[in-house]
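Reviewer comment 2.1 asked that we show a complete input and output for one of the modelled complexes. We chose the heme C case, as it is the one discussed in the main text.
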Amino acid sequence: MVAGIKKVAGLLVLCVWATTASAVNIARVDVAPLETSKAYQQACASCHMLYAPSMLPVRSWKKIMSNLNNHFDDNAEVTAAVNDEVTAYLERNAAENDKRRYAKSMLGLLNDGETPSAISDTKYFKLMHDAVKPKMVLGNPDVRTFARCEVCHSQAQEGKFNSIEAKIPNYFRKAGRFVH
Ligand code: HEC
Ligand code: HEC
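Response of the prediction step:
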């Protein structure tokens, strides 16, 4: 009898654990590129993570790729051939060519002709990070910049984002807000 109860209790614990674990692992946002590119990897992964092409419109990628010698105060220039290949890849997989939710919502919130130079400059990004204040990023020695998505999103490099599992170093959640 006691053994039976223990067994049931054990099963219950296991069920609760499994549900919480899977809830955390389900990516609410998946921007993993449907096509990958070795050239993109080689040209763009040495200074920061490889951003998913569908997080920006074609015109933003064009702007970024034609100004690589002055890229956020850095020089990220590549040969003309590599530039052509990477630009073509980014355009093929840009937001306009991706039917998933992130791309649609991000595009929908852009003004006519607006050409964001960064993912973190888009209105959609800012809306999603409304709870993340500048002091938690710029003033946080373990973050410093929104460009390092992987610091707060453990699956960022796989293109998976989930606000529930997002963590800000040196802060914790209390009643839905981030506190020091
Ligand atoms: C020499 C280093 C370097 C290389 C190589 C490089 N970048 Fe960057 N990139 C940077 C820096 C620095 C930033 C600014 C990060 C920040 O805001 O703190 C940046 C930011 C970005 C951002 C904006 C991120 C945001 O905040 O939303 C995009 C998009 C981007 N890079 C695309 C590319 C692409 C495409 C390539 C390859 C052609 C590339 N980068 C190669 C240094 C580099
Ligand atoms: C300083 C930590 C931090 C950085 C850096 C950061 N994020 Fe976030 N992000 C968060 C937090 C926290 C949330 C959830 C906010 C909330 O709960 O209101 C979030 C939410 C999101 C969401 C919404 C997910 C969902 O479930 O709908 C996406 C998508 C996202 N971030 C993408 C990015 C991308 C792309 C980058 C890099 C260009 C980035 N984030 C950089 C902390 C960060």
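The chain has two domains: 36-113, 129-180. We note this here for comparison with the apo prediction described in Section 3.2.
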